[in-house]
Amino acid sequence: MTKYAELDRTVQNIRVENTKLNGDVQQLRNRTTSLIGLIIGLILLAVGGFAWLVINLQKLDQEELQRANGIDPGLANQVEQLEHQMTDLRKTVPGNLTDTLQSNQTTLAQLQTQLQQVTTQIKDLETSSNNIKSQSNSSPQVTPPSNQPSPDSNQLDGTGLLTGHIPKPFIGEEF
């Protein structure tokens, strides 16, 4: 039985050794995966840094060219911003805005002309009304009293509004 016992110990030792080696292999795989991830991260970081460096060098080169040409970099940046704003405005403002503005200005001019005409007519009516009142005050007419209201008298109607004579325009005058 000693051969079997030795063989059994050897098998157990091999199993323990195998388990230990499997653990070591798994640990090495985990470390390898971590190192590969770290290397990829470092490569991406280096590429990003390189891209940033290239972009900044291009900006500096462009600024130097502008300075050499006598253009202030601050003004060049403002021009770029204004160009972006103009592009945005062109997208939001309709293309026929100028036509609409001209149409509205024409309509406004027509309305102003009409307003002046109406104002002139109102002034003419006030003048003719004042003339009629001054004529009636200068030559009073005596009328016998009657129960019927005269056409020149103003009275309240059922709505609380004054009713009565509305002066007629002179011959040839229009309302």
Structure description:
The chain is mainly alpha-helical and 175 residues long. The chain contains three helices and two strands; from the N terminus they run αααββ. The protein has a two-stranded antiparallel ribbon with strand order 1-2. Strand 1 and strand 2 form a beta hairpin. The protein is elongated, with a radius of gyration of 52 Å. The termini are far apart. The mean pLDDT is 81.
The total count of strands amounts to 2
Taking all Cα atoms into account, the compactness measure Rg is: 52 Å
Q: What's the rounded overall pLDDT mean? A: 81
- Strands of the biggest beta sheet: in what spatial order? 1-2
Strand content: under 5%
Silhouette: elongated
What is the helical fraction, as a range of percent? over 70%
Please mark out the parts with pLDDT under 50 across 5 or more consecutive residues, or reply none: none
Structural class: mainly alpha
**Helical stretch count?**
3
- How far is it from the N-terminal to the C-terminal residue, by CA? 142 Å
The profile of the biggest β sheet is: 2 strands, antiparallel
**N-to-C series of helices and strands:** HHHEE
Output the keywords:
175 residues, 2 strands, mainly alpha, 2% strand, two-stranded antiparallel ribbon
Helix and strand topology:
Layout: H1 2-68, H2 73-92, H3 97-138, E1 155-156, E2 162-163
What's this entry about, in short?
With 175 residues, the chain is mainly alpha-helical. The protein is built from three helices and two strands. Strands 1-2 form a two-stranded antiparallel ribbon.
